[in-house]
Amino acid sequence: MTNQPILFRDLGKMDYQAAWDYQESLLRENVRIKTEAAYQREEGNTVATGTATTIHYLLFTEHPPVYTLGKSGNISNVLISDEEMKERNIQFYNTNRGGDITFHGPGQIVGYPIFDLEKFDTDIGKYLRNLEEVIILTLAEYGIAASRSAGETGVWIEPGVAGKERKICAIGVRCSRWITMHGFALNVNTDLSFFNHIIPCGITNKQVTSLEKECGHTMDMEEVKGKIRRNVEKVFEGRLIME
């Protein structure tokens, strides 16, 4: 289905747990709507036989320093002790998203799409590729030729050049009843030294980069957000409604 309305909310700077709880609440409400609609159809209520009125959301936020480990992640990819994290005021969470260990922090745009894929395409692989495409198109507007790395979800620069592979955007999602949560983290003006204390996404011998590092100057976060929003509309053929 095209021209899907997507409610956009910029949450500003928000603690990771608060953002996680908020996503969960939106996902649960959409699941409730779908479950109720399915029940009504089973009961023969013709009024409720149409598509469930779930709501798509796109949330942007920026977290204080935090390491998050995906449900399939390996704790050995965390190279810093609990004590050191406390000393550096870095939080840590085991999460229910896919993927391994990553970092969120200031200067990074974190995007959380709460989408009902039954209104787009019930294909998680395609959904992940679409998220990658949003970021690839956004980086292209800055003259950066980003692409995918075979078998490694996320967005990369020079993924096929040994020794120069560098990841600029991590992606990890969860899906329940075809409702998505979690999403992508694009390094814009991020302090990359935080990545020295983990093996990002569990991938060894590859670098992490940022838009600031690639362009050689501090980036306008609001400008980058605007480009991402427009590319979400383009890739998902949706219509963002600003709140």
What are the key terms here?
nine-stranded mixed sheet, BirA Bifunctional Protein, domain 2, globular, 12 strands, three-stranded mixed sheet, 5 helices, alpha/beta, 243 residues
Report on the structure:
The chain has one domain: Bira Bifunctional Protein, Domain 2 (BirA Bifunctional Protein, domain 2). The protein contains five helices and twelve strands. It has helices at residues 16-42, 82-87, 124-140, 211-215, 221-236, and strands spanning 4-13, 56-62, 66-69, 91-94, 101-104, 108-114, 146-149, 152-157, 166-176, 179-187, 207-208, 238-242. The strands form two sheets. Strands 1, 2, 6, 7, 8, 9, 10, 11 and 12 form a nine-stranded mixed beta sheet that branches. A three-stranded mixed beta sheet has the order 4-3-5, with no helix packed on it. Strand 3 (66-69), helix 2 (82-87) and strand 4 form a beta-alpha-beta unit. Helix 3 crosses helix 5 (221-236). The mean pLDDT is 94.
CATH topology: BirA Bifunctional Protein, domain 2
Identify the CATH architecture: 2-Layer Sandwich
For the terminal residues, how far apart are their CA atoms? Answer: 23 Å
CATH class: Alpha Beta
Mean pLDDT rating: 94
The total beta strand count reads 12
Structural class: alpha/beta
What fraction of the residues are assigned to beta strands by DSSP?
A: 25-35%
Uncertain segments are: none
Gross morphology: globular
| Whole-number count of domains | 1
Order of helices and strands: EHEEHEEEHEEEEEHHE
Number of helices: 5
Q: Major β-sheet, in short?
A: 9 strands, mixed
Set out the fold topology.
Layout: E1 4-13, H1 16-42, E2 56-62, E3 66-69, H2 82-87, E4 91-94, E5 101-104, E6 108-114, H3 124-140, E7 146-149, E8 152-157, E9 166-176, E10 179-187, E11 207-208, H4 211-215, H5 221-236, E12 238-242
Parallel strand pairs: 1-2, 1-12, 3-4, 9-11
Antiparallel strand pairs: 2-6, 3-5, 6-10, 7-8, 8-9, 9-10
Helix pairs in contact: 3-5
